[in-house]
Amino acid sequence: MATIKDVAKLAGVGLGTASRVVSGKGSVSPATLAKVRKAIDELGFRPSHAARALLSGSSRMIGVYIPVLSGTFYTPILQIIDTELRAAGLHMVLAFGVGLGDERRQAIEGIEFLVERGCDGLIVMTSALLEEDIAALGLKAGQLVALNHCFDSIAEQCFTVDHTLGGRLAARALLDHKHRRIALVEGPRRLADSVARTQGFDSELREHGIDPNKIWRIESDFSPAGGWAAAKALLESGYECSALFCANDEMAVGALSYFQEAGVRVPHDLSVIGYDDTPSAAFSAPRLSSVHMPWREMTQNGINALLNLCYDMKRPVHREFPVSVTLRASLAKATSGRRKAA
């Protein structure tokens, strides 16, 4: 494989001159330019990624950190990021939580991994980091965008959605379908976005005369297995309800699976609504009603902001993202004949 040195030798020019032609930076006479381009064509020279980085001072790589590489939530977001970066002539480098440390330590080490590999900018999706961790990044903090979380020190570089409103809309959808006896599967209470959606849900119930402290609820881990276990616990509790809100779609899909095995017909015996409106919601059995969070819009604008910071691309950036509810087969009107969990 030909190198930049081979190009310089064949063209009869210095290495620096050949490098300026390849990088497009610096002045070169028309005659010299023609000689170098002819040598490139004859040798079939294609600069490697590493060579382009050395010539341009930019790796053209964007690092992305997510806590886990599993499930249906992060995959669509990663697809959006990768597609947008490739269209801009950039590459995505992914890191996720591994190791024996806690979530914060894993996030710190994952981001360090991306910085060490020369990523021009960072996209971070984790609530485990503290403000001091952002400060520790020094100048690199100015080339970081946070998705689904906000840090006060870099507020203009943070893009999130209104989870409080999302929780309210979940409750409103159930109330609009005449449900008053409701159960709740919360997400992890250590996560700010999980807490926000639960608070919104509780507030909406309270405003409609339902004491949220008296409904059946359980904390789970955002996984299908967690939803399965929560649904099992609900039936075993004997709590009488007509509807269940699961604070993400993966738990809702797990709950649907358990109900099917237990002989609980959804939505005839029990309605179920999820949260996120991930692709899996449209293909569950029955198809899952879910709070539609505008992840695509949030991600797209976060990418635009980062490319503006790193490459001065001057892309448009918006910060208002619509939240709605997608109604599907898992949610129906409450009836007096709803069964008691047992």
Please outline the helices and strands.
Blueprint: H1 4-11, H2 15-23, H3 30-43, H4 49-56, E1 61-66, H5 74-87, E2 91-96, H6 103-116, E3 121-124, H7 131-136, E4 144-147, E5 158-159, H8 163-176, E6 182-186, H9 192-207, E7 216-219, H10 224-237, E8 243-246, H11 249-262, E9 271-276, E10 289-292, H12 295-311, E11 324-326
Parallel strand pairs: 1-2, 1-3, 3-4, 4-5, 6-7, 6-8, 8-9, 9-10
Antiparallel strand pairs: 10-11
Give a written overview of the molecule.
There is one protein chain. With 342 residues, this protein is an alpha/beta fold. The chain folds into three domains: 4-56, lambda repressor-like DNA-binding domains (434 Repressor (Amino-terminal Domain), Orthogonal Bundle), CATH 1.10.260.40; 61-160, Response regulator (Rossmann fold), CATH 3.40.50; 163-292, Rossmann fold (3-Layer(aba) Sandwich), CATH 3.40.50. The chain has twelve helices and eleven strands. The protein has helices at residues 4-11, 15-23, 30-43, 49-56, 74-87, 103-116, 131-136, 163-176, 192-207, 224-237, 249-262, 295-311; strands at 61-66, 91-96, 121-124, 144-147, 158-159, 182-186, 216-219, 243-246, 271-276, 289-292, 324-326. A six-stranded mixed β-sheet has the order 7-6-8-9-10-11, with helices on both faces. The chain has a five-stranded parallel β-sheet with strand order 2-1-3-4-5. Helix 9 (192-207) links the parallel strand 6 and strand 7 (216-219). The protein is elongated and about 85 Å long.
